Amino acid sequence: MSREFRFNRVLLKISGEALKGTQDHGYDAEAVREVVSRVKRIIDQDVEVALVVGAGNIWRGVMGRSGGMDRVNAEYMGMLATVMNALCLRDFFTAAGVPAIVQSSIGMEPIAPRYDRVKAIRALEAGQLVIFAGGTGSPFFTTDTTAVLRALETDCDAVLKATKVDGVYTADPMKDPSARRFATLSFDEALSRQLKVMDSTAFSMCRDNDLPIIVFNFSDPESFEAVLAGDTAYGTIVS
Questions:
Q1: Is the pLDDT of residue 61 over 70?
Q2: Contacts of 179 (CB under 8 A, 6+ apart)
Q3: Beta-ladder partners of 237
Q4: I need a labelling partner for 66 at 20 to 30 A (CA). Which of 3, 8, 9, 174 fits?
Q5: Cβ-proximal residues to 20 (8 Å cutoff; 6+ apart), any chain
Q6: CA angle 63, 64, 70 (to 5 degrees)
Q7: Residue range 167-188: average pLDDT?
Q8: What ranges in 96-142 are assigned the alpha helix state H?
Q9: Selection from 4, 10, 221 nearest residue 129 by Cα
Q10: Cβ atoms 236, 168 nearer than 8 A
């Protein structure tokens, strides 16, 4: 490695919005290439990376529910959208020379094979990027919870949540200029303060299994490597 990293295998959770760039929805090729470039730089330094991507660039379950749709059906649509995003990322990573596979929690053959823990771990050990799609396969669970679940199942050292801000704040820093950033934070404090960076199920699962969460600003080109090295100036470590 070119620098000393604190974590050797991580689960990176990115939003679907990271793929749409300046577009209103869908995909922006340059935005997708930027995601690929930053992740590739980490993989090239021998960090094993699994990835979960949201679906906000295509569909949000809340959109369907607000329009009168059944919640379960709306959330299944979101799961399908994560598969579309995973396929997009796989092709862009492959084009960039990064071997990548997609595993879906929902049966999607021949589009994508079903989630298989053993095969996923073997792929990570071989230096491949593993993209987990389809959420948990069940409604009422967010992709944050999916990220934590897959991280635990594949023995990741940490969950890295890519956001638009450099960590967890006492309030939304985009709306409250007096909001204070945490360098470190306990799970209990995050839950008691009802901080909305990740949902309570994801926080609780990490707390119960001693899996740290790192919240960082993915748009900062230096941040990914910095937080892997444990630098709290670039993100908040929740543990």
A1: no
A2: 169, 170, 171, 172, 173
A3: 184, 214
A4: 174
A5: 26, 27, 28, 31, 57
A6: 145
A7: 91
A8: 117-125
A9: 10
A10: yes
Check residue 129 and give its pLDDT: 98
Percent share of the chain, pLDDT over 90:
81
* The one-letter amino acid at 60: R
CA dihedral 64, 140, 213, 91 (to 10 degrees): -60
Q: In whole angstroms, what is the distance from residue 157 CA to residue 9 CA?
A: 6
The secondary structure of 183-238, three-state, reads: CEECHHHHHHCCCCCCCHHHHHHHHHCCCCEEEEECCCCCHHHHHHCCCCCCEEEE
- Cα–Cα distance, 46 to 72 (Å, whole number): 40
Q: What's the confidence (pLDDT) of residue 173?
A: 87
Instruction: Compute the distance between CA of residue 183 and CA of residue 237 in angstroms, rounded to an integer.
Output: 7
Q: What global pTM score does this model have?
A: 0.94
Type of residue numbered 166: D
- Phi first, then psi, for residue 150 (nearest 5°) are -70, -35
For 52, the token pair is 């979960």
Q: With bands split at pLDDT 50, 70 and 90, how would you rate the model's confidence at 55?
A: very high
Q: Provide the strand spans (E) within the chain.
A: 9-14, 48-53, 100-104, 129-133, 158-163, 168-169, 181-182, 184-185, 213-217, 235-238
- Mean pLDDT (the chain, rounded): 93
